[in-house]
Design brief:
Blueprint: E1 22-31, E2 48-55, E3 61-63, H1 69-73, H2 84-98, E4 110-113, H3 122-126, E5 131-135, H4 138-146, E6 151-153, H5 158-168, E7 171-177, H6 186-196, E8 197-208, H7 210-216, E9 228-229, H8 232-240, E10 244-252, E11 258-265, H9 272-284, H10 289-313, E12 320-323, H11 327-336, E13 346-347, E14 356-357, E15 364-366, H12 368-373, E16 378-381, H13 387-397, E17 403-406, E18 413-416
Parallel strand pairs: 4-5, 4-7, 5-6, 7-8, 12-13, 12-16, 13-15, 16-17
Antiparallel strand pairs: 1-2, 2-3, 3-9, 8-11, 10-11, 14-15, 17-18
Length: 418
């Protein structure tokens, strides 16, 4: 049966627990898909509801609308290896996982779900650990295979997991980085993980951390690709339904605070970190509707503050550009109504994005070298979650000496590059 998006515009039951006791609390308006960049400035495009709701039974925060995954992910413009931060994190991620195995018994097989260009699998390959990547984006999977990372072009679910189990045997490690927020069929994916991971195997699951989103006012992490916004409490409930338990937790630097959950088959011993994270969520009210309603109110106040700064910086003909045409930037630009009149262009190092226009706001995306050759006065750091990396590039490579506007976390700030 074909996927009918119109049937999914109004969520009726929670994606996690199936309950219908939902409370909508934040409407960001109709927006285009964040990564649907335009080839021409006047290209026609569609927009879709972008709003959050809260499950009063299991506390899962989620979108009210489910987009067609074939449209969102069949071709993709984010390439993990573009970011030096991601490449460094891949090395650490590999070391952290291998440290959980005896030195003389490395993993027999590492499988990564939504492996993109294979950046997070290459460190395993360099250590002679067999890998398989799974990614639904045709262009990205082809690139990964060309670059020597064995990758199957497919969506991961229980059916594919059973097929891989027959073909390859159980995986000692399954990496699931920033995948669960993207899928409507949560239970099929998690059943697939449970099927494929060995009896003593390890699932390393990374998600945007709802607590960090809440505390840092990261409303720009809300877009159609991210259907769910997990906390330790909500992720634990979901995994336990399928015989998996979180045994350890860590935080990563990517996405301005990622949660890394290490899960095994039920019955394994748990590290102290699990209780510490859960206690932290309880103390701060992370899993309450009241906290998320206040989050929405803060986002509207932030929109006004950011626009006031941009308006002030256009006085006297000063020129402001953006840096980072990320999916995050699409939500912020559209929610705040930031047009080409306020932001002349956006610099982005990814060749797949250059010579395109942003979805909805139609701002041109150009190579950084071209943007900074024109000596702009200000930079709006749209990809603020890579702040240190980008500020370093501005200072050292492009010799930028103007103002950098940091929109988030929490409140807009201005850094003067002298």
């Amino acid at each position: 049966m074909a996927f009918d998006m119109d049937d999914n515009a109004d969520l009726k039951v929670c994606r996690g627990c199936g309950n219908s006791n939902l409370s909508p609390f934040f409407d960001l308006g109709r927006q285009p898909f964040a990564n649907s960049l335009l080839k021409t400035e006047d290209e026609l495009e569609d927009s879709y509801p972008l709003a959050l709701t809260f499950c009063n039974e299991c506390s899962l925060v989620q979108l009210t609308y489910t987009a067609d995954p074939a449209v969102l992910f069949s071709r993709y413009v984010w390439v993990t290896g573009t970011s030096s931060t991601a490449r460094r994190q891949a090395l650490k991620f590999c070391s952290d996982i291998l440290a959980r195995f005896p030195p003389n018994q490395p993993p027999r097989l590492v499988v990564e779900v939504a492996s993109n260009d294979g950046t997070f699998l290459r460190p395993f390959i360099e250590r002679n650990v067999p890998v398989i990547g799974i990614d639904p984006a045709v262009n990205i999977a082809e690139q990964a295979n060309r670059d020597g990372v064995r990758t199957r072009c497919a969506f991961f679910d229980e059916k594919l997991a059973r097929s891989l189990l027959v073909e390859q045997g159980a995986a000692d490690v399954i990496i699931v980085r920033n995948v669960l927020p993207h899928v409507a069929a949560l239970h099929s994916v998690i059943r697939g993980i449970s099927v494929l991971v060995g009896a003593t195997g390890l699932a390393a699951i990374e998600v945007h951390y709802g607590k960090k989103i809440l505390e840092g006012l990261q409303y720009d992490s809300i877009y159609h690709e991210h259907l769910c916004y997990f906390t330790v409490a909500t992720l634990s409930r979901l995994l336990e339904k399928h015989g998996l338990e979180i045994v350890d937790l860590d935080e990563g630097p990517i996405n301005a605070g990622a949660l890394i959950a290490y899960a095994r088959k039920a019955g394994a011993s748990k590290a102290n970190s699990v209780k510490r994270f859960l206690d932290g969520e309880a103390q701060t009210g992370t899993n309450t509707l009241a906290a998320w309603r206040e989050f929405a109110a803060r986002a509207f106040r932030h929109r006004d503050e950011l626009n006031a700064i941009l308006n002030a910086e256009t006085v006297g003909g000063r020129n402001t550009v953006g840096y980072g045409a990320s999916a995050r930037s699409s939500t912020m630009l559209n929610f705040c109504g930031i047009s080409r009149q306020k932001l002349g262009c956006i610099a982005d190092a990814a060749p797949l994005k250059q010579r395109s226009f942003t979805a909805g706001t139609r701002i041109p995306i150009c190579a950084p070298e071209k943007v900074f050759a024109a000596r702009p006065d200000n930079v709006l750091l749209l990809a603020w979650n890579f702040r240190e990396e980008i500020v370093g590039l501005l200072r050292d490579r492009f010799k930028f000496r103007g103002k950098v506007i940091h929109p988030l976390p929490t409140t807009p700030t201005i850094q003067i590059m002298a």
